[in-house]
Amino acid sequence: MFEPLQGKTVIVTGASRGIGKGIALRFAAAGLNTVVVSRSLAEAEAVAAQAGAQAIGVAADVSTPEGCAAMVAAAVARFGGVDILCANAGIFPAAKLAEMTVADFDHVISTNLKSTFLSVQAVLPEMEKRGQGRVVITSSITGPITGYPGWSHYGASKAGQLGFMRTAAIELAPKRITVNAVMPGNIATEGLDGMGADYIAGMEAAIPQKRLGSVADIANAALFLASNEAAYITGQTIVVDGGQVLPESPAALEAM
Ligand code: NAP
């Protein structure tokens, strides 16, 4: 049985929908004070209301130092500190290389990678006051392991998060702050609504478990990395993809 995390405070960025919302609701259900962050205050507050009494919604753009400072200030004002950061906010607009603009590239790197650095830096003083802390980054299989046409900037941002993580984990180890990452495969989120049954079936066919992941699958991995029992794990990744990266070719799936 794991030790309860009840009463600890978690900040979840990008928590107004999708995976971040799943993480926020899972942590809130485990009894944590939960800070739900997105650029939209109304959407963040709606998730906080769903999460329960020990949750607040905060509007912050985590690609800016001011936004990250504001979210930490809100956590401290309401809950007195920060124990856990789930750095999850991310965007994935597609653009093939021939058409990709410098602005496209900068926007994705800034939202996905620079935000990881800025949000970790912003929570550090609070975690140092606590004498320990947990950072759980939402990376992806796309970039660190796989590729997908249109997502070279996205893949670079997701692989970059892992490079950041490894050095951050070393620097923060003496402070008893661990830094780890979850690497989701294809997860069923609101973003897939309207893509059509054929599209979903095609995605499922490429996964050995023959289903998309759920936001709960990712949230459970994040909760483990945030647990007291994961204290000796740092700078590591957990792939949560139903086996998607395993087949060495389409023939491996056909041979199942
Ligand atoms: P999503 O449903 O589009 O949600 C993205 C969240 O990030 C929203 O809450 C959004 O709210 C917030 N956000 C975006 N830019 C922000 C900013 N600058 N500052 C603060 N919040 C911001 O995305 P998702 O599919 O759940 O993906 C979440 C994370 O999982 C991303 O890092 C993504 O790379 C990763 N991931 C997803 C999948 C998947 O299959 N879905 C697979 C692998 C990895 P606002 O727009 O209101 O700010």
Characterise the protein shown here:
It is globular, with a radius of gyration of 18 Å. It has 256 residues and is α/β, with parallel strands linked by helices. It is built from eight helices and seven strands; from the N terminus they run βαβαβαβαβαβααβα. The chain has one domain (9-240): NAD(P)-binding Rossmann-like Domain (Rossmann fold, 3-Layer(aba) Sandwich), CATH 3.40.50. The mean pLDDT is 97. Strands 3-2-1-4-5-6-7 form a seven-stranded parallel β-sheet, with helices on both faces. Helix 4 packs parallel to helix 5. The longest helix is centred in the middle third of the chain and has 29 residues, at 102-130. The two termini are 35 Å apart. NADP nicotinamide-adenine-dinucleotide phosphate binds next to helix 1 and strand 2.
Topology:
Layout: E1 9-13, H1 18-29, E2 33-38, H2 41-51, E3 55-59, H3 65-79, E4 84-87, H4 102-130, E5 133-138, H5 152-172, E6 177-184, H6 197-205, H7 215-226, E7 237-240, H8 250-254
Parallel strand pairs: 1-2, 1-4, 2-3, 4-5, 5-6, 6-7
Helix pairs in contact: 1-2, 1-7, 3-4, 4-5
The protein binds NADP nicotinamide-adenine-dinucleotide phosphate.
NADP nicotinamide-adenine-dinucleotide phosphate binds next to helix 1 and strand 2.
TL;DR of this structure?
The protein has 256 residues and is an alpha/beta fold. It is built from eight helices and seven strands.
Question: Class in CATH?
Answer: Alpha Beta
- Name the CATH superfamily assignment: NAD(P)-binding Rossmann-like Domain
Alpha-carbon Rg, integer: 18 Å
By DSSP (H or I, 4+ residues per run), the number of helices equals: 8
Distance between the termini: 35 Å
- Give helix % range: 40-55%
Q: So what's the oligomer here?
A: single chain
Characterize the biggest β-sheet: 7 strands, parallel
Quantity of strands, as a count: 7
In CATH, the architecture is 3-Layer(aba) Sandwich
Strand/helix succession: EHEHEHEHEHEHHEH
Instruction: Please tell me the total number of domains.
Output: 1
Mean pLDDT, to the nearest integer, reads 97
The bound ligands are: NADP nicotinamide-adenine-dinucleotide phosphate
